[in-house]
From TrEMBL:
Signal peptide: 1-21
Domain of life: Bacteria
Species of the source: Phenylobacterium ferrooxidans
Annotated keywords: Signal
Name of this chain's protein: Lipoprotein
Amino acid sequence: MTGFKDLKTLLITSLSAVALASCGGGGNAPASPGEATGGGTGGGTGTGAAADCPTGTTNVGTVAAGTLRNCQLPAKITGTLNLPLRAGTVYSVTGRVDVGDDMGGDAAAPKAGAVKGVLSVDAGVRLFGSAGLDYIVVNRGSQIFADGNSAQPIIFTSKQSIEGTAGTDSIGQWGGLVVLGRANINNCPGTTPYGSATCEAQVEGTNAFYGGSSNTDNSGVLRYFRVQHSGFQILPNNELNGITLAGVGSGTTVDYVQVHNSSDDGIEWFGGTVNAKHLVLTGNDDDDLDTDSGFKGTVQFVIVRKRANGGDRVFETSNANNRQPPSTPQFANVTAIGRTGGNDNYVLNTGTDARLYNSVLTAPAASTVACIDIDDAVTKATFSSVYMSCPVAFREDSNVGAAAIQAMFGAGANNTSNGTSTLTSDFINGANENAVVATNLTAINPAFTAVTYIGAVRNSADTWWLGWSCGLTSGSTC
């Protein structure tokens, strides 16, 4: 990924030695440093902890002062592993956990000998990692069904969070979730044709492959699902994000998902065609929405709030060094609250062709943040019904100047570059935002939901974010 990550690199590098030391080998990996350990399914009876663990997981003792039975996932999941909601039970990953084998990029002809895995997670379940290299990879051809509900979201988080010791600014305490699919990507090796089953690439952060020939590929369901305190830098510019969606197809459901306090991006898309709705991105230390490698999906209803003491861009839309066909992400109904300093809200580069509709971009009046920065002449952007309230509307630099960006912005309908924010609670529309005429989204892409307003949250009665997410309102902690 592109980016200016030197400060973050310094912050995270100090964690690397500890995280590397905790990386387990094959089979059931050993517990990460600091985890309580224990024997078979009847071992340990901490106060409130369940007596045993569900089939397919390993009892490794208790955590949270003996109140929770720690049931560890195997290093590889084949067949179906269900994680039921049980009193006194929490689940954990140690090292890399693979869901299935890599079945290749051709859904009609899976790799010989490769075995599918399915990870099914009940509403209300909590799962943790203890170190940076504790993470989950859902391989091509396998699936995750993490289907919570508004009252019982599924939470993947850090051990510190489970034990109540994660601070409000804690990032990078475990790896995160990587989902790999068989949809088209544009960073094919050599002369491999775009759209072919062998057009594949190795995903950032781990040695697993994504991409292929099935744009309707189904990697499962992420719904009412939170990832917290995640992200880890393997090498400079090679990181685990909160959630990585690489080559993920349109058959996959991503809806009501939050990433909170990732040390890298909130969600990064590498190619693929998956559509996402109802996202909450808070406290992430790099970009919140990062697209690359020919991504062609839609993203609608998004609240972004940058962290107070760090963070980078809200969007980085890229295109794998101007490969063809370009990334064409389509964003709608985004409300983005930028940070006081650092990089700009919406950064476009490397030949992407990005579209932004019905959205609100803001930054604090005391900041130096620009709403939009375009970094090269081959990059394109479309704007319609976008309301901006930033100290600087368009970044003036040696790449694409402010006047050229302004002309691109002005070519769209119902755009405002120098508005005054009337948002309440940072993300709920006020009079100025609701005065903007909305763009008809279903005429652009049927994957969008039809709306008559801009921004993520129309008014105080619009509560799609309430209950399952955290950290947006006073007293709501993660």
